[in-house]
Amino acid sequence: MRTTNSGQRRQMGRSARAAAVAVSALLALGLAACSSPATSSAQTGTWSAAVHPEPTGQPSGYSSIYGVSCPTASFCAAVDEAGAAIAWNGSTWSTPVAASPNGTLNSVSCTSPTFCVALSSQEAVTFDGHSWSAPVAVGPAPTNPTGGQYEVSCVSPTFCASVNTAGVASLFNGTSWGHDAVVDTGTATKPVQNISCASPTFCVVVSATGNIATFNGTSWSTHSSPGQSLLHSVSCPTTTFCMAVDLTGHALVFDGSSWSAARPMSGAGALTYSVSCPTASNCKVARSDGSVATWQSGTWAQSVPVLHDGTLATTAISCASTTFCALVDSAGSVATFRS
C-alpha cells in the first residue's frame, strides 16, 4: 500500500497526464505512420524473459516500478510507487527494501554501485552501496500536486540535478541541494518531463510544452524545440550528443550545437516513454506496448517486443553500455538485455 498522501497524489498526476496527452498522441501517431524512417531488421543481443521481483502487496496485485538506473552491467537500482528499491547484481534482482518512508519514488540515478539518488515528490534519498539514507528536502514546496520532484540525473557523487513537473530545477553538490531555478513553466496537462546530465557543466531538460532547457554549469537557458511538443524523455551520454523523444514516436538529436528536426522512429501505434543512450551512436527507446526500438548510427532497427502486460506501460529504460540494458514497467516487471 502507498504510505502517504503524497504518493497517492503523484500516481494521480501520472494518470491525469497520460489521459490529457492521449488524444494528441494518437492523432500524431497517424502522421508518424505515414512517414517511413530508415530501418534495419537486424539487432544483436537478446532480452530476458520478464521477472517480477516485487511481492504482490498493492491492491492491484503489483507495485509499479517508475525508475531504473544501471551504471554497470552488474549493478542497477529500480524504485517503485511504494517507496521501495530493488537492486540487480549481474544475475538476479533483490527483493524490495524500503528506501523512502514517505511514499512513491519517481526516479533514480546511479553513478556507481555505491552511489544512487532517488526522488519522491519533494525529497531525495541516497544509497551508499549498503543502505538508503534518511530523506532530505529538495527544491521549493510544490504549490500543486503536479509540482513534486520528478526526475534526477547524477554524474558523480558530488553533482546531481533534478527537475520537477512545474519546471523548477535543483542542484546537488555532494552535501546539500540548492540553486533552485525555474527552467520552464509546466502545466497539469503539459508538465516538465525529464532531465539528463553528461557533466556538471551540461544538463538538458525537456518538457511536454515543447521547450528544451540547457544548463552550462552556471545558468539555464530555455528555447523551443524544432516544432515538436509533448517531449517526454532525454538522454545525453556526452556534451555533444543527446536524443530526446516525444510521446508520439518522434526523436530529435542534439549534435553539440543544435537540435535536428523531429523524425519518426520505427513502428507506430505505441506511445514513446523513455530513451537511454549509452554512447553517441546507440540509443534504446521504451514504448508503451512493451517493445523497445534501437537506434544505431542514424538507423532505427525494428522494434522488438520485450514486456507484455497489456495496457500496463513500460516506464523506464537504462543502458549501462551497448551490451546491457534494463527495462521496467508499471506492472512491476523487469527485463534485461545482453549482447
Describe the protein's architecture and organization.
With 339 residues, this protein is mainly beta. It has one domain: 7 Propeller (Methylamine Dehydrogenase, Chain H), CATH 2.130.10. It has one helix and 30 strands. Strands 1, 23, 24, 25, 26 and 27 form a six-stranded mixed β-sheet that branches. A four-stranded antiparallel β-sheet has the order 2-30-29-28, with no helix packed on it. A hairpin with a 4-residue loop joins strand 17 and strand 18. The longest helix has 29 residues. The relative contact order is 0.16.
Quick structural gist:
The protein has one helix at 5-33; strands at 39-40, 46-47, 65-72, 75-80, 84-88, 97-98, 107-112, 115-119, 123-127, 136-137, 149-156, 159-164, 168-172, 177-182, 192-199, 202-207, 211-215, 220-224, 231-238, 241-246, 250-254, 263-264, 272-279, 282-287, 291-296, 299-301, 304-305, 314-321, 324-329, 334-338. With 339 residues, it is mostly beta strands.
With helices defined by DSSP (H or I, 4 residues minimum), what is the helix count? Answer: 1
Distance between the first and last residues' Cα: 37 Å
Record field, number of beta strands? 30
User: What is the architecture at the second tier of CATH?
Assistant: 7 Propeller
In round numbers, the mean pLDDT is: 83
Instruction: Give the CATH level 1 class.
Output: Mainly Beta
- The proportion of strand residues reads over 45%
